[in-house]
Amino acid sequence: MPESDPPVPRKLFIKTYGCQMNVYDSERMAEALGAEGYVTTEAAEEADMVLLNTCHIREKAAEKLYSDLGRLKPLKAERPDLKIGVAGCVAQAEGAEILRRMPLVDLVVGPQSYHRLPAMAKAAERGEKTVDTDFPPEDKFDHLPDRPRASARPTAFLTVQEGCDKFCAFCVVPYTRGAEVSRPADRVMKEALGLVQKGVREITLLGQNVNGYHGAGPDGDWSLARLVRELARIDGLERIRYTTSHPNDMTDDLIAAHGEERKLMPYLHLPVQSGSDRILKAMARKHRADDYIRLVERIRAARPDMMLSGDFIVGFPGETDADFAATLHLIRAVNYGMAYSFRYSPRPGTPAAERSPVPAEVADARLQTLQALLTEQQRAAQAAMVGREVSVLFEKPGRMAGQMVGKSDYLQAVHVKTDAAPGTIARVKITASAPNSLAGEIA
Ligand code: SAH
Ligand code: SF4
Ligand code: F3S
Q1: Ligand located closest to 312 CA
Q2: What is the pLDDT of residues 51-66, one digit of tens each?
Q3: pLDDT tens, 145-189?
Q4: Domain 10-132 class?
Q5: Does ligand 2 lie within 6 Å of residue 140's CB atom?
Q6: 55 partner at 20 to 30 Å CA-CA among 4, 97, 224, 302?
Q7: CATH number for the domain whose boundaries are 140-382
Q8: From atom 6 of ligand 3, which residue's Cα is the shortest distance away?
Q9: How far is CA 217 from the centre of its chain?
Q10: Distance, CA 167 to ligand 2 centroid (Å)?
Q11: What is the 420 CA–ligand 1 centroid distance (Å)?
């Protein structure tokens, strides 16, 4: 048999939209295609394959895909060998429709089928178009190679749970990511150990409903609290975070862990969406505003310095001025360190999309009012840090020479003049604050 030439490395450009899970998935896809001889590049112009890892959560997010594909047209015309793939939640939602609308696309792969990507890439190289949006019974992560992490960053995401059974009336996630599935605890532990051996100091556990985690363990199912406690025993792993949590799955053992586990960071993203019981009901959130406020009180009883963040939707169908005032009331009662807020965007196939909308100008005005309040709270939370001493995990050099940027326990960006290496954790005294970052000096 003639010896075949070693494969010429091909270049892969991945653009990631949407949530942290997509960031994690993009890394895993790069690793899977890495095993096929693809190396990642930062420049789409020199790529042999462009992969767009998409988000379907709001209309604007989904439209970005088609405008970005339009922009790739001249590149593909110039280099017909260029392969273009669409992954992520738009791929799941629209499937083959993407090929019909955009003939320049070579492959469409849904979030549960990433283990099939290498085979699909090979098909694309042969000139065959493929679409895979199945929800296969097997765990996609079992079929992806162990993580040969290229990045030297000291922080990493680790998906432990995927999908959602909550079916909030506005949300596409249960349709694009499928039913809730938890990865077995031993796989998660193994992946975490591997990351720590590669220098990772902070792991953020990911799931659309991460606090609903119940992965099979050696002695029965592990809850998220149990998983956190076991991870905390790994030497060299210094910080654990998790996101995103649903208020109804915030169990007593998890709240207790926040009071007891030094490595579990005092920052919690706990979306509530609205402060009006009427709207929460229409959203099918299955909790009232007061349940949420009490929950926050219990969390702060366990961990008094807990920094809360949240998500809000304004202009949900049927929202009145009184409903909106209730949301402002809840925000004042909770006092967020930061929060994300969105104008309601009707999504095809979701129950709320059938209901009559709040006029756009009303929703916009409310969004502005709400964002002004959230900005004020964030500013105050940042300013309150000045004079305090916090730990900072340094991640990378800052913009100015001799400066490093890292994150505080509370996930705030902190700039410090130091020659500490990435991955170092230091005590830092905060000397100045801005809305989105802090400055400090080594204590
Ligand atoms: N699983 C998480 C995140 C879901 S998506 C959770 O349950 O909170 C992230 C955020 O996008 C949501 O919290 C919500 O605030 C927002 N969002 C989801 N669907 C939306 C829609 N149709 N219009 C506007 N915002 C939406
Ligand atoms: Fe969407 Fe609700 Fe599930 Fe969050 S809990 S992913 S908002 S359906
Ligand atoms: Fe977007 Fe899918 Fe994440 S819709 S927010 S990429 S789960």
Answers
A1: 1
A2: 999 999 999 888 899 9
A3: 666 666 678 999 999 999 999 999 999 999 999 999 999 999 999
A4: alpha beta
A5: no
A6: 224
A7: 3.80.30.20
A8: 55
A9: 25
A10: 6
A11: 38
